[in-house]
Amino acid sequence: MGGEQTVLLPMLHALQEEFGYIDDLMVPAVASALNLSRADVHGVVTFYHDFRRRPLGRHRVRLCRAESCQARGAAAVERTATERLGLRMGETSPDGRVTLDAVYCLGLCATGPNAMIDDVPVSRIDPATLDRLLGDLMR
Ligand code: FES
Fold first, then answer.
1. Which of 63, 69, 111, 122 has the most ligand 1 atoms within 8 A of CB, as the residue to mutate?
2. 116 close to ligand 1 (CB < 6 Angstrom)
3. Is 70 touching ligand 1 by the criterion CB < 6 Å?
4. pLDDT (tens digit, 9 = 90+) per residue, 9-32?
5. CATH homologous superfamily, domain 59-138
6. What is the pLDDT of residue 5?
7. Burial of 109 (0-12, 13-18, 19+ CB in 10 A)
8. What is the rounded CA–CA span in Å between residue 16 and residue 124?
9. What percent of the chain has pLDDT over 70?
């Protein structure tokens, strides 16, 4: 790969922006458009964790994993989320209801640990509060 690679990343970001994820069916078209192999494109899509390969859930729960929130108990909050939802970070529930994601700082460090639930920030979140909020999402 040469100059095509410099175009590949912006193209993939644009596709994800437009469609919400990079469907496997897009890979051959992208490869053809840039004269790359499907393996080249697939390799980039799977290497960079920013690229989502499945649609987002109807609800999105993002938990901050950055240092300040980690120092304030983010690991326990994350454990609650993964156990309650039965998901690992970055996964979407099979019914498409919720996506659980990590985020690396929401700019609210002084009030951590922090979460963003459907674009609403939740500060000083604790496992019990998160468990209740997740229960509301699952209804
Ligand atoms: S470290 Fe979590 S909001 Fe900044």
1. 69
2. no
3. no
4. 999 999 999 998 999 999 999 999
5. Glutaredoxin (3.40.30.10)
6. 72
7. middle
8. 31
9. 97
The pLDDT tens digits for 38-72 are: 999 999 999 998 899 989 999 999 999 999 999 99
How many whole angstroms separate alpha carbon 108 and alpha carbon 11? 31
- The answer to whether the beta carbons of residues 51 and 45 sit under 8 Å apart is yes
d(CA 1, CA 76): 43
CA of 121 to the centre of ligand 1 (A): 11
Q: Are strands 98-103 and 115-117 parallel, antiparallel or unpaired?
A: unpaired
